[in-house]
Amino acid sequence: MYENEIQLRERAKKIFLNEQKFWYAVYTKPKSEFKASEQLKEIGVEYYLPTITKVKQWSDRKKKITEPIMRGYVFIYVCEKERLRCLEQDAIVRCVLDRGKAARIPEWQIDNLKRMLEVKSDFFLQEGFVPGKKVLIKDGPFEGVIGVIQKFEDGKRVIAVSIDLLNRSVIAHFPVDSTFEILKGEN
């Protein structure tokens, strides 16, 4: 009887975890991020596609273009059942994996990315791991953002907000007089 009770609890735990939602990143087919997000919208899945609007110049005209910041990726906030349904979409290739399992992205990393992109500031994408101290921005347009101090240059501090599993960082410049708190025990 006791073993049966343990098995029932384990089963209930698995069911609970399957209904709990997490952030994941999915790979898309080349240049299909917007198509993937439309397909995700059609099936009722919460997604996040970070974009930037740039002015592109051709020989005869200028045009505003909205393009993904992280090419080839769309972030989804789903339970396990919804995640599997997302993988059935034509524009989605597969889920980002970590040690053979779908890699969960911490919600705070997605929140940081959203906050960073809300501010109309100059930024650029940095590929690769950016070493340094993690900091919490205490004031200004980036208030509440957790990032990594990358370097100091020409009276500005440069901060990176990373999605660790994707090995990508969004980089922004902020004034030297901005206050920040170095997060203890974080690297």
Structure commentary:
- The protein has helices at 2-19, 33-42, 80-86, 107-118, and strands at residues 22-28, 46-48, 51-57, 62-68, 73-78, 92-95, 97-98, 101-102, 104-105, 123-127, 134-137, 146-153, 156-163, 168-175, 180-182.
- The chain folds into two domains: 1-105, NusG, N-terminal domain (Alpha-Beta Plaits, 2-Layer Sandwich); 106-187, SH3 type barrels (Roll).
- The relative contact order is 0.15.
- Mean pLDDT is 78; it is low at 124-131.
- With 187 residues, it is of the alpha+beta class.
- The chain has a six-stranded antiparallel sheet, covered by helices on one side. Strands 1, 2, 5, 6 and 9 form a five-stranded antiparallel sheet that branches.
- Helix content is 25%, strand content 41%.
Strand content: 35-45%
- Order of neighbouring strands in the sheet with most strands: 10-14-13-12-11-15
- The count of domains is 2
The CATH topology assignment of the largest domain is Alpha-Beta Plaits
Topology order in helix (H) and strand (E) letters: HEHEEEEHEEEEHEEEEEE
How many H/I helices?
Answer: 4
Give the radius of gyration.
20 Å
Main β sheet profile = 6 strands, antiparallel
CATH class wording of the largest domain: Alpha Beta
Let me know the number of strands.
15
